[in-house]
Write a structure and sequence with these properties.
With 84 residues, this protein is mostly helical. It is 80% helix and 0% strand. Helix 1 (11-39) packs antiparallel against helix 2 (42-66). The longest helix is centred in the N-terminal third of the chain and has 29 residues, at 11-39. It is elongated.
Length: 84
């Protein structure tokens, strides 16, 4: 019995987590800059950045969990679960 060669993930699949982290970072930087401009306190700005970054990541993760996988994704999941 030969093992089928697993298909390599596409560039889009590889970069998807980076895109989500970048989106969270942009939201955090925006919040941090708003806090910095309004309070002129770097510590509060860093706290605002961290809170916005984490809340955005959790929000993105919750939205990602609500998306149903398509037919190709279901097939890929079944293949990964069956043979290994």
């Amino acid at each position: 019995m030969s093992n089928p060669t697993p298909s390599q993930p596409s560039r889009r699949e590889i970069l998807k987590p980076v895109e989500l982290l970048a989106f969270a970072a942009v939201a955090g930087i925006f919040t941090g800059l708003i806090v910095l401009m309004s309070t002129r306190d770097v510590v509060f700005a860093l706290i605002g950045f961290g809170v916005a970054f984490i809340v955005t990541l959790v929000g993105i993760a919750m939205f990602a969990l609500t998306v149903k996988p398509g037919d190709l994704e279901k097939k890929d999941i079944d293949e990964q679960n069956s043979g290994h």
